[in-house]
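Run log, item B.
One chain of 192 residues. Sequence copied directly from the ordering sheet:
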Amino acid sequence: MADQSDYDKLSKEERDEKDKADRQREAEEQAALPYSWKQQLGEVDLIVPVPKGTRARDLNVAIKRKSLQVGLKGKEAILDGELCREIKVEDSAWTLEDQESVMIHLEKIDQQKWWENVLTHHPKINTTKIVPENSKLSDLDGETRGMVEKMMFDNQQKQMGKPTSDEMKKMEALERFKAAHPEMDFSQAKIS
C-alpha cells in the first residue's frame, strides 16, 4: 500500500481515481466475507446468513472480549477469530432473525475509534474515509456538542494557518495583561 506522502503528490483527479479504485476493491473484499457489517463509533452490527430453517439451538455463537465465533453445531465455523478491538461482552448480544440470519450487536470498549475490520484476519477498510451515519450535531448533548464544535473550529483554523480557540484565549489574556501593565516591555514575550 502506498504511503500518505505518495498520495499527497497526486493531482485531485488522480486522487479521485485512486479513491474510487480503493472503494471498489474494498467493496468487493467486504462483499466476499461470509457476513455483512456496519458500525458507528460506539458499536458494530453484523448480519451472518445461515441456512433457512436454522433454529437458535442449532447455532454455536461465542462472543468474547477479544474474539467472535459463529457457526452451526457440528460444522466448521462460519466465522472464528480475533476481533479488531475489544468489546463489552455484557452489552453485546445476538439474535436469530427469520431462521435465516444471525444478527450480532457488539458494543465497543473504545467508542472513539473506527474499526478497520471485524476479525483481524479479514480485509481492512480505510477508516479515514468513513462518513458517520446520522451524525448531526443537534443529536449530541450540550457538552459533547460544544466539544465537537470547538474541535471542528480548531481544525478549520489550523488548516487556514490561523490560531486555535485556545491560542486565541491566550492572546486575549496577554492583551488584557499588557493593557493593565503599560510599564512592562512585552516585545520579547513568547506565548506557550
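Observations after the first pass:
- The two ends are 38 Å apart (CA to CA).
- Helices lie at 4-9, 12-31, 142-159, 165-180.
Flagged for discussion on Thursday.
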